[in-house]
Amino acid sequence: MEMKEIWVEKYRPVYLRDVAGQPTVTESLAAYIRTGSIPHLLFAGPPGTGKTTCALIIVREIYGDSWRDNFKEMNASDERGIDVVRGKIKDFARTAPLGDATFKIIFLDEADALTSDAQAALRRTMERYTFTCRFILSCNYSSKIIEPIQSRCVMFRFTPLKERDMQGYITKICEAEEVSITEDGIKALIFISQGDMRKAINILQVAAGIAEKVDDEIIYRVSSTAHPEDMKRLLLRAFQGQFLPARSILDELFITGGLSGEDIIRGIHGAIIDLDIPEEFKAELIERIGEAEFRLVEGSNDRIQIEAFLAHAALLGKKNSV
Q1: What single-letter DSSP state applies at residue 67?
Q2: DSSP state of 97
């Protein structure tokens, strides 16, 4: 199979009605578009939920084919200092729109990466040039946007996509690309992506490029994600007091599976929740896995931290006769 085009862009919706999983948001945005004008907007929510897509659709709907003339897209993760706000953003905002347009639009992605000084300068720019420029800000965490900016924007919250929305979009892409995917493969994609459509599509494209039939095994492999069954097997060995056999399974995951410590930690966390064990037992193990994850992020040795967790699980299992 040739992979000439990135599927995330190829299947990016071009109309609001095609945006999956955000009906409340798209209905409200459509009402703004019908008036031909928009206020400053703030899109908040996790990655892959349609924030950038909605911003691009708004611009195309308002300006038509000449949308690039009055639109500027920037990523605050790349340019996050006050000089960018005082320079590029201010220069674009204060110039008159081209053609018949009554205002320009600046889309600032990952706006929560802006420094405090940059946000303060942005607030002044938004206030001063409202009549010639509107801002669409996108962020993962609205709490990181200063209150004066939030009060000048209409906020829309994007939520992780639901399973049925993910399944419908994945199925549509598979049919269009003639990809053979199993039901377990779709479930694995949904499980791994956790409501992030962009992540799901990227994994699907890689998997389709290396396998004639996409199943759960290939999905877990190409995404470098721990298979839930492997995690369950690891934990059950530990709970049964079999520390050394559990350690051998851990070796398989590290060496054969090529997983990182953080990959395994996340897999263990998901498996603990799904296991049929007493709730108090789950709570204690989750607390321990939280400590191990924190230490890994701080730079501790992967193997030592996970083995320490398995040792604790083994001792706890013996004590509680799991």
Answers
A1: G
A2: P
Q: Write out pLDDT tens, residues 280-293.
A: 888 989 999 999 99
Asked whether residue 6 is assigned to any structural domain, the reply reads no
- Work out the pLDDT band at 260, boundaries 50, 70, 90: confident
| Cβ(41)–Cβ(186) below 8 Å | no
Kindly state whether residues 251 and 150 are assigned to the same domain. no
Instruction: Work out whether strand 71-75 and strand 154-157 pair parallel, antiparallel, or are unpaired.
Output: unpaired
Angle 279-297/261-274 helices, nearest 10 degrees? 170
CATH of the domain at 285: 1.20.272.10
The pLDDT value recorded for residue 1 is: 43
Please report, for residues 248, 257, 314, the alpha-carbon distance to residue 253 in angstroms, rounded to integers and kept in the order given.
9, 5, 19
pTM: 0.82
Task: Domain count for the chain, please give it.
Answer: 3
- Residue 118 pLDDT greater than 90, yes or no: no
Task: State the amino acid at position 13 in one-letter form.
Answer: P
Closest CA to 115 of 91, 84, 142: 84
Domain range for 213: 163-222
pLDDT tens by residue, 179-205: 999 999 999 999 999 999 999 999 999
Helix, strand or coil, per DSSP, at residue 116: helix
Same domain, 188 and 269: no
- The tokens for 297 are 């992020």
Instruction: Please indicate, yes or no, whether residues 151 and 34 belong to a single structural domain of this protein.
Output: yes
CA 209/CA 179 separation, integer angstroms: 9
CB 101 within 8 A of CB 64: no
Distances from the Cα of 71 to the Cα of 74, 90, 92, 147, 155, angstroms: 10, 13, 9, 25, 20
Backbone angles phi, psi at 300, to 5 degrees: -70, 165
Give me 255's structure tokens: 């060496």
Residue-level pLDDT at 79: 62
